[in-house]
Amino acid sequence: MPIYITTQNASRLGSTVSEITSVLPSAATDSSSSSSSATVTTEVDKTAFSMLVPELISQLPTNPTSHLSVIIVGIETHICVTQTALDLLALGHKVYILADGVSSCNAGERPIALARLAREGCTVTTSESLLFELVGDAKDANFKAIAGLVKETKDETKSAVETFWGSHV
After folding, report:
1. Distances (CA, A) of 30 to 27, 41, 155
2. How far apart are the C-alpha atoms of 44 and 88, rounded to whole Å?
3. Phi, then psi, of 36 in degrees rounded to 5
4. What's the CA gap between 113 and 8, in Å, rounded?
5. C-alpha Rg value of the chain to the nearest Å
6. Main-chain phi, psi angles of 161, to 5 degrees
7. Helix crossing, 154-165 with 143-152: angle to 10°?
8. Other Cβ atoms closer than 10 A to 16
9. What is the pTM for the complete model shown?
10. Ordered mean pLDDT values, 10 residues apiece, the chain (169 residues)
11. Measuring CA to CA, how many Å separate 76 from each of 83, 101, 112, 139?
């Protein structure tokens, strides 16, 4: 599963935080690997609010019938996340927004943006829900590891969901 990271004008706003970059495969991972399970991380700096800038678009499938399922996490839900999601939808891709993986500097903007994105056609879900959707079956070889991860991080996940959604959960 390829991972695309964008920074918004890193020279002025800073680079991707080490809490994220430290757990990702290196950007130097060989993208020509024939293994379908190879994960490639690509990092692109941009000034556009959408992450669909030429450097990233050039790495997406060029076949117009190749529609992707894209999972988005990030900050400024009402700006960069929204514009990226809308651009991906316009290209015919399936877009998942992780409600516990997006934020905004103004907390009031976040629920408005998530509601809009859901109306526009994005699937707004949680990280735990999406993990189990990706695994699909308890017989899957990855199920045990995913279930362990969910159990290990349940307190942090609960805190994040309650912080973002408060009494709405």
Report:
1. 8, 9, 36
2. 17
3. -70, -15
4. 19
5. 16
6. -65, -45
7. 60
8. 14
9. 0.82
10. 88 87 65 49 91 90 79 94 96 94 92 97 95 93 92 82 62
11. 10, 11, 12, 37
